Amino acid sequence: MRPYQRRPIRALGLLRHERWWLRSFTILAAPLANPLHSFRPAIDRLLPMLPSPASTPKRIGAGFLVLHHGREADFAVLGWWDNENEMPLRFMVRDHGARTRWRRPRPAESVCVWDLEVIWAERNAYVETALASGQRNPAARYAFSASPFLPRGSWRELKLEDRSRGAAP
User: Fold this and answer.
1) Strands (E), 73-129
2) Across the chain, which distance is largest between two alpha carbons, in Å?
C-alpha cells in the first residue's frame, strides 16, 4: 500500500439538471486541463440516474458530483439526498490507458478516502441547512451554503456544453 497523500479538492460550481441542484467538485491526483470535458461522458451517463421528480416531501432535489482524476483511474461520483437523511450514490469508472471507456464499477470498487472527504463536507452542509429546523427552501440553502473547497466567493452556475450544438464530448 502507498502512503496517503492529500489531493487538491476544488469546487467547480453548481450544475443544474432538470430541477436538481448539484454541487460539483474535482479531486486531482495529477493536473488535468479540462475536467468537465474529460468527464463529460460519465456525467452524461450519471445524470439520468437521478430520480424524478427532483423534489418530493422526502427529497429536496439537491446533491453533488465528484470528478476524481485518480492515479490509476478516474471516478465520477453522483450523490443526492433522499428519504430525508439518506444519500444514494452512483458512480462510473474509467481506467487510465489508451482508448478506455467509462464503465460501471466492479464489485470491489467504491468511493475512496479522497471522495469521502467531499462526502463528509456535503453531509455537514446538508445537516446544517436542509435538516436544520424551520428552514424554508432547503434545496437552495444547501446548494448555496459554504464549502471548505470554495475558499473565496460564492457558488456559480456550471454550464455543460450542449452536445446538440456540435460541442465535443
Assistant:
1) 73-80, 89-95
2) 52
